[in-house]
Amino acid sequence: MILLDSVTKKYPGDTEPALDSVSLHIEPNEFAFLVGKSGAGKSTLMKMITKEESPDSGKIIIGGIDLDYVKKRHIPGYRRRLGVVFQDFKLLPRRTVYENVAFALEIAGMSNKEIRKTVPKVLELVDLSDQAKKFPHQLSGGQQQRVSIARSVARQPKILIADEPTANLDKLTTKEIIDLLKKINDFGTTILVTTHNENIVNNLQKRVITMKNGRIISDQKDGGIYKLDGKPEPARRVQTPGHALKPRRRVIQ
Ligand code: ADP
Question: How far, in whole angstroms, is CA 153 from its chain's centroid?
């Protein structure tokens, strides 16, 4: 569903590549976290998927589409096939909750009749039916993020990518948003989420892909845990390398 093959990207003026021969395959219906310290290359990888940036070399195939063949004028149409969720929600401030979702469908070319049928269903999915007439500034951060998710899933994308979707939310609201993403994943959408939130990664026990200096340094397929250096966290260590190397003293009596 998401396929990167030896993707390298160096921004002009940088000495090191932001992505250094990254290969990754995310299967249909997977839920994967992308973690790594700031500057590791997570956002650049996401931008490769949305075609905001192009690689210097390597191949990217998303939902069966080879991005080399997506011409500039077709990029907006390609992006509408993806669900994209941002940390700052990016809602239209002068439009209501209902209109924010309806607008996304309108640009995608859906008829008014279809829009009137679809929006209430999507608002129900994100549990915001009773907030449809409110404007974004009248909502909490978590509710705004749910509108943003509603907007991105309204067109039923096969893939949803979310760059730090819970960065601006408190602990309880973060859980709500992650539960919602899980629900959307259960309906069959492939999901890739970048996060710095150790708790949600460790609680969800999903695939965890860790990046460092533009490379994937660890890829835990299931039951993954948050570990930025690709090494086990100290608390989980059973034996330090020092112990392992020390020869056992034989006791001679
Ligand atoms: P992350 O999302 O993990 O914080 P990024 O993908 O934003 O990492 O950055 C990876 C590397 O690419 C960093 O060294 C960063 O400084 C560099 N970088 C990111 N965006 C740009 C840009 N527009 N121009 C130049 N360098 C960039």
Answer: 13
